[in-house]
Amino acid sequence: MPVITPFRRPPRTADDAPDTPGTPGPAPLEALRSRLAHARARRTRHPRAALVVRRVTTAFSAILVLGALLLPPTLAALEPSRFARIPAEAVVAAVLLLCLPRGPRRAAAALAGAALGALTVLNLLDMGFTEYLGRGFNLVLDWGLLDDARSYVADSVGGAAAAWAAVGAVALAVLLVVLTALAAVRLGELLAAHRERAARGALMAATVWMTCAALSVQTFGVPVATTNASRAAEAQAHRVVDTLRDEAAFAREAEADRFGATPGAELVPDLRGKDVVFAFVESYGRSAIEDPVMAPGVGRTLDARTGALAEAGFHARSGWLTSATYGGSSWLGHSTFLSGLWVDNQQRYRTVTAGDHLTLTKAFAKTGDWDTVGIMPGVRKAWPEADWYGLDTVYDASGLGYRGPRFSWSTMPDQYALEAFQRLEHGRKRARPLMAEVVLTSSHQPWAPVPRMVGWDEVGDGSVYEGIEASGVKASDVITDSARSKEEYGRSIQYSVTSLTQWLERYGTDDTVLVFLGDHQPIARVSGDGASRDVPVSVVARDPKVLDAIDDWHWTEGLKPAHDAPVWRMSSFRDRFLTAYGSTPHPTGAGD
Q1: Phi, psi (degrees; rounded to nearest 5) at 219
Q2: How far apart (Å, rounded) are the C-alpha atoms in residues 499 and 416?
Q3: 133-148 tens-digit pLDDT
Q4: Which residues partner with 438 through β-bridges?
Q5: Which residue of 273, 424, 485, 572 is 20 to 30 Å from 132, comparing CA positions?
Q6: What pTM was computed for the model?
Q7: Can you tell me the distance from the alpha carbon of 525 to that of 153, in angstroms, rounded to the nearest whole number?
């Protein structure tokens, strides 16, 4: 019989490794086993060090996750007592993770941790926005403002610092999301490794939470049982939904205009022949007049300037307007004041400027009896909104001929901007009177260095300010110091008001009418927590008929409004002004 020799497969070599995609061959598996073996060996050789590392990692993970769950959305609420509470989300998450097998548990923990990290980033943004703008961060509208913030830092303390700050902020956001995801996975694995004890602990925590919630138990004035993270997420969601709903509602509101169809001949007939100037003083808020730190200096300036104007034949009436914005976003205040619409976010601003709603400035242009001009030292790039405002000519930062130094964010001192306005437009002989919108920027944060007044004949091309800027306070010395910021802010308001009223005293005529106001309050660090959104507004003229027309407004005589002077929403000013000076309503849209 033939002998049958059994077939024996030769030993496998590395060249025989399977080439199926995604299937590791022996070499990678051996390498992995080797690394794991080395890791186990290190832990075996240094058990105490390994134990310390594990415990520190676990403690850090627990602190990070619990801190993120309990983090409040405002700096004012950032107190130790806020972190001595039991978050319901932690109890629920622990129960869910204990119920899942290894793979889904890790995936769920990583996803929940990443979501918690993203929520923490939003909470930090809320803190910053509340501190500066008096409101939380809007996921739909506010991303563009982050670039404005970078530009502000660059203008205040330099481009390199702004670049590093931007890189650091992005890195911090990414790091938070990654670390909270890893921390959640770490805690999930710890729960699974001690399943029975973890289950008993979760049950006890749930019992304590429900008891504290039912009895409203508090420590240091805050409830022990909390759903802080859930409420924060819900607030963000509501903010998004409300924003999306508001877009359509505001578009319909903007279509209705009490004076939208009024013929030019019937607009402001009582101001025919007058040069009318609407001037915005950056960050000139109620706090400048009433805060104990700023009020004495600002009050003396307003009293002195009221007296000086009276000697020159000018008289004033002053009241309060509630601005649509706070701490920044000046363009929202400008558009609210001039359009008669409540423009309190970027979406509304885009909607209204894309339409044909009548602005107060455009009303003068529509008559055909005024030349309309904008003096915009803060504008440094294309500004298509000029057409919507009805401005025939706009002088931006590059068009005013300034050759001096910048004063932090402000491109030029207010006194220079006003002297340039006089040279380029107000002082020229013209066939028609002038209507001007002037935006003064020297009182823009960080309020350092603040210019000082020079002789009007010395202003020239601005070179005179070289030494003044160099010897001034540095922005970096003020920007993080609340007390110093208040002092310098008060000085900047005194400078801006003095510049504007001296310009009127020097160049105003019997036919000059000045309306000036603040666009918003300064940031909360200066105006104080819970400060109102009120700003002062004044009408100044030589012609007594101009002020007689607003007698029924019951405003205070002089440049300083009384504490109990009338307070109107800023959006109401346009219609009141047009009515006071003889305009006839012809509604359009929903107001037909």
Answers
A1: -130, 130
A2: 9
A3: 777 787 777 777 677 6
A4: 279, 375
A5: 572
A6: 0.76
A7: 17
